Amino acid sequence: MPAPCPRVFPSGPFDAKARRAFGSAVTRHAHDLGGDKLFTDAGLAELLDRYPREDVGVYTMGEGPDSWRRGRLGDISGAELVQAVKAGNLWLNLRGSSARDARLGAMNRQIFSELKRALPGFMPFRTDLALLISSPGARVSYHLDVPRVMLFHVRGRKRIFVYPREAPFIAARDLERVVTETTTEAIPYDRSYDAGAQVFDLAQGDMLSWPQNGPHRIENGPDLNVSLSVEYMTPAALMRANAVLANAWLRERFGYEGGLEARPAFSWLPKFALARWLRVIEPRQARPETLAQTFVVERGFTG
Ligand SMILES: [Fe+2]
Prior knowledge:
- It is a single chain.
- The chain is α+β, with helices and mostly antiparallel strands.
- The protein has 2 domains: 16-235, Jelly Rolls (Sandwich); 239-281, no CATH class.
- The chain is 29% helix and 25% strand.
- The chain has 8 helices and 13 strands.
- The chain has helices spanning 16-21, 41-50, 78-87, 97-100, 102-118, 172-179, 235-254, 268-281; strands at 27-30, 56-60, 69-73, 90-94, 125-134, 139-143, 148-155, 158-162, 198-202, 206-210, 216-220, 225-233, 293-297.
- The strands form 2 sheets. A 9-stranded mixed sheet has the order 1-10-7-12-5-4-2-3-13.
- α2 (41-50) crosses α3 and α6 crosses α7 (235-254).
- The chain is globular and about 55 Å long.
- The chain binds fe (ii) ion.
- Residues 143, 145, 149, 216 line the site of fe (ii) ion (FE2).
């Protein structure tokens, strides 16, 4: 039986300003998860030894946005894998960790129970926590996520760039492509966008939350990085995703230009109904893994 998860947010309930901003602006919060021994080298090694290998996403990357390659884990122990991540250019994503590990599941529940207490009317569902373990200097290129996301940083240093959810940073057609899963989460990026980004240097104990579908990219600092990526939906977030899904269908059939759906609108109701109907008549495919597996991380891996 794992020890109960300690309090996540040391400062307790959010103040009025933080309550208003949470989810609608980029907000930074202090958290106390980083001290858990699960996140030490030994704790991570032990977790990797018992975690289902097929549920670990393994990636390496170069400089450009198209340079991500997918790999798989071979004959390598958890301890050797932690060393390989420290030495190499790797990004491990332990998908669905909250369902596969009791300790991480307890953290996920504790996070949302404190948030529900702090934020009146907050109704999260489809909550999911993924543990990310990544190399010094690793980077994640410009992309957006369909659900709402919080990033709890627990080890190392990381710089995250968060961009406005508006033109020119994101075009409606690209948002629709991500939501309909006809592409990966990657979207077109131009260096000039950085002038409009909010930039945060994260260390252990920092949590960052940003608006649903907000474009972002990440550059790791010179040390091993460990973070928890916590995804969830709310009723408004689900309505918005479905409005975008309906817009994609209306664009394809009728050339309709639905826009970015930045604010809740009455049109979300019929679009929500349309999207639910589309899901019935055009069942959603499982997200295709667009990258083929091209390398194996095994004992002695050097990147
Ligand atoms: Fe993301």
